[in-house]
Each structure stands twice: as C-alpha cells, then as structure tokens.
Amino acid sequence: MLKGLIVTLTLGALTMVGVFTVTAADMKPIHTQKTKDVTVTLQNESGQWKEGKNSFVLEFTAAQDKKPADVGKVSLNTSMGMPGMAPMVSGATLTPDGPGRYRGTIEFPDRGTRQVTVTWDGPEGKGSTKFSVPVR
Ligand SMILES: [Cu+2]
Predict the structure, then answer these.
(1) Ligand 1 mean position to 51 CA, how many Å?
(2) HEC string for 51-119
(3) 40-86: per-residue pLDDT in tens?
(4) Distance in Å, CA 3 to ligand 1 centroid
(5) Model-level pTM?
(6) Distance 94 CA to ligand 1 centre (A)
C-alpha cells in the first residue's frame, strides 16, 4: 500500500517535469516572419503543422531590442485555395500566455500549403503579416 503510494508520487513528479520541459525548451520553429516592428515566431514541438488538430505557440518580439512585444489582441487565420472550390479557411483559438506569447490550437481537414494571416493590435503597435506554411 505504502510502496504503491510512493511509486505513484514518483510517477506524478516525473510527469510534471516532463510537462515543464516541453513548455520551456522543446519548441521548434515552424515559421519566423520579420516585419518592420515585430518578429513573429510560430512554433510547436515538432516544428510542423499536420492534418488534424494542432497546438502551437505564437511569439512576438520587438524588431529593435528583441524583447517580448505587447501586441494585445492577436488573431491567426489560414486559407487554402483549392481548384473548383471555395477556399478552405480555418482560424486558430489563441490564449495569452505571458508577454508577447500566445498558445494556440487549430484544426486542418487536409494537407496542403496554407496562406497564414496574423494580425495584432496593442500598446506596441498594430499590424498584420502574411506567410505560407505547409500542412504535412
Ligand atoms: Cu484543402
């Protein structure tokens, strides 16, 4: 009984360490976009978007001093043109997660290159940028 409890606690502690390691270090860039005022970095654990549900982190740093930029309200939308069809669009759900940092989820019904539009509007500026990202 006691032995079982100790094993459970140890596993719990290991799981927590795992979670912290992933959030802090194991992010790979999917795309980095430099604009006049800010650099936008889209990243996740694999460095790729895939078909289905994806989670990611979007970071904004000031172009001048590379410090986190307070860009306020942010949106990320994607579109894929398909022959003979209306463009397939999907938008991300974004949650603020510290200065200049947002956690996001997005779902893609198929593979193919997405045109991504990121917009921001906050104390450190207002703007938007477009780039493409493959969904593999
Ligand atoms: Cu499509």
Answers:
(1) 10
(2) CEEEEEEEEEEECCCCCECCCEEEEEEEEECCCCCCCEEEECEEEECCCCEEEEEEEECCCEEEEEEEE
(3) 999 999 999 999 999 999 999 999 999 999 999 999 999 999 889 89
(4) 53
(5) 0.81
(6) 22
